Amino acid sequence: MPAPAAVAAWPAAAIRSAVFLACLAPLLWLALQLLRGDLGADPVARLTHETGIWALRLLLLSLAMTPLRRLTGSPWPLRLRRMIGLFAFAYAAAHLLVYVALDLQAYWPQLLEDIVRRPFITVGAAALALLLPLALTSTRAMQRRLGRRWRTLHRLVYPAAVLACLHFLWLVKADWREPAIHLGIALLLLALRLPPLARAITRRGTQT
Amino acid sequence: MPRYRFPQPAASEITPEPVWRERRRLLAGLGGLAALPLLPACRQPEAVPPPAGNPLSIVRQTDTTGGEALTRFADVTGYNNFYEFGTGKDDPARHAHTLRPRPWSVEVAGAADRTGRFDLEDVLAPHPLEERIYRLRCVEGWSMVIPWIGFPLADLLRRFEPTSQARFVAFRTLLDPERMPGQRRRILDWPYVEALTIDEAMHPLAFIATGVYGQELPNQNGAPLRLVVPWKYGFKSIKSIVRIEFLAEQPLTSWERSAPHEYGFYANVNPEVDHPRWSQRSERRIAGSGTSVFAERIPTRLFNGYAEQVGALYTGLDLRRFY
Ligand code: HEM
To answer: Is the pLDDT assigned to residue B31 strictly greater than 90?
Structure first.
């Protein structure tokens, strides 16, 4: 018979693994389609779009964790927040890598010109630049070392999310519905952090 | 009038041998070019399904690309920008079955002696069909090589006897949210409108396509008839045309109306003039047997490689200002 501690630990590990796999699934699915030559007529565009959209979705999901914690009082959202945020960064990094290595290829010096001249790339790059220090300081050790400054630093995720939505909004040709929905969700998640709203949604007895 | 010359291949684009062999095999299969008055239209090695209707017969084949690899049938018919059926690239192939391209009619109006409404059959009847292999360059930075079937736009327009007032020709796509469900949302100011100057429209490269890959146009490619203007960005090549109007003044086209700083009236392919969101210097070519993620980006050429043929249309025009 397993020790009581192990019984308690099992669901925690299972939840973590399940969320880990769920976050990884889109990437595995893309890799599978890539190997099978199944990415459609313009596979590079497909990879750019899928990695971009998953970066944004996971970023918004990570932003949903704090409000979710307040709403439910469960400790789980906060335990999963870092993993989801790191996955968002990983997808964003893959997104940039696809753009530079597979799309621009020999034209890669154009990236700098794109960042300067094309507003949608400028804000995308700004979003990624804001996410980078967050990913680098995501370890427990860094969290301890930075102390209170860690929380301040990690508020950079708010502008990063808004910039990522603007990036999306700016790149569509005419159909603004999808980026507008993402921007709406981002703004809602940020609004839920305003003290009156944060208080209103907090379940009684929840420590925040 | 000087004899019209089709493009000559640059040394860099001499057909790779496997492609050339494949072409030779195809031509041999056709039993020789010149001898036959009617050729069965281009057949491709790669999985081109048999035509749904009658196979189209052609009198002539012209490859304007100098042997560049063709885009697969599946990609030509499965990766489309046709917002009337949705904004995703695979939406048109999935949703365009609602179009019903027959019966169809085309209204001709404006500065011409023969105007009115014409049944599709009467529009098409006098024109022998030919195959033209053209490059197609999308403003989004990808391109294809497509064997269209159809006839020169000029031959069609002349039948309506445009007057000396006619300096522009405007085209309009069907407006019918029942048959084009994408029109239920106002993504663009429907119906889609495009236009050319009369000189552009009369240029021998400007083409009306009624088919592709030896068969009638699938709905998602703009059935039953569409424009193909290979030296301009793809959005100029308007699909499913219901109206042609000869005008004295330059009309406002759909994309100009939607985003005037991004899309101009001319929309000539030009690597030197960037779109605000995309550099136009190079392109991803969707061609060959399955596009690889490692397929090489290729440089974009002025007028999509048709500068020799159409350059004279624009002498004296500031291509940066008139983009
Ligand atoms: C240097 C950084 C970045 C570059 C160069 C870049 C570049 C691009 C490019 C070229 C596209 C496709 C545009 C098109 O098809 O016209 C794109 C789409 C997109 N990117 Fe980025 N991006 C960057 C950062 C980011 C970041 C940090 C995020 C989100 C966290 C993001 C999210 C997206 C989304 C959601 C799309 C649209 C996907 C779709 O259409 O479904 N990007 N990006």
So the answer is: no
Please list every residue in chain A whose beta carbon sits closer than 8 Å to the beta carbon of residue B72: 41
Domain range spanning residue B192? 11-65+72-136+147-254
Residue ranges of chain A with per-residue pLDDT less than 70: 1-10, 207-208
Average pLDDT, chain B: 86
| pLDDT for residue A8 | 59
The model's pTM is: 0.85
Residues with CB under 6 Å of ligand 1 are A 45, 48-49, 52-53, 55-56, 59, 92, 95-96, 99, 121, 124-125, 127-128, 164, 167-168, 171
What is the rounded CA–CA span in Å between residue A50 and residue A130? 21
Question: Is residue B30 predicted with pLDDT exceeding 90?
Answer: no
CB contact under 8 A, B293 and A118: no
* Residue B161 near chain A (CB below 8 Å): no
Is pLDDT at B12 greater than 70 in this prediction? no
Q: Is B322 part of any domain?
A: no
Start-to-end Cα distance in chain B: 28
Under 8 Å between Cβ of B45 and B114: no
Q: Which of B186, B256, B262, B277 to mutate to test the interface with A (most CBs of A within 10 A)?
A: B277
- Asked if residue B299 has pLDDT above 60, the reply is yes
Structure token pair of residue A136? 């680098």
Angle at which helices A4-35 and A76-97 pack, to 10 degrees? 20
If one residue of A115, A167, A183, A185 were mutated to test the ligand 1 pocket, choosing by the most ligand atoms within 8 A of its CB, it would be: A167
pLDDT at residue B19 is higher than 70: no
Q: Tell me, what CATH number does B110's domain have?
A: 3.90.420.10
Q: Rounded to whole angstroms, how far apart are CA atoms B112 and B280?
A: 37
CA-based end-to-end distance of chain A: 37
pLDDT tens per residue across span B170-222: 999 999 999 999 999 988 999 999 999 999 999 999 999 999 999 999 999 99
State how many domains chain B has: 1
Q: What residue type is A64 in one-letter code? A: A
Selected for mutation to probe chain A from B85, B262, B293 (highest A CB count within 10 Å) is: B293
Q: Which residues pair with B241 in a beta bridge?
A: B173
* CB-defined contacts A:B, below 8 A: 72
Q: If phi over 0 gives left and psi between -120 and 50 gives alpha, with beta otherwise, what is residue B263?
A: beta
Determine, yes or no, domain membership for B321.
Answer: no
| Distance, CA of A152 to CA of A146 (rounded, Å) | 10
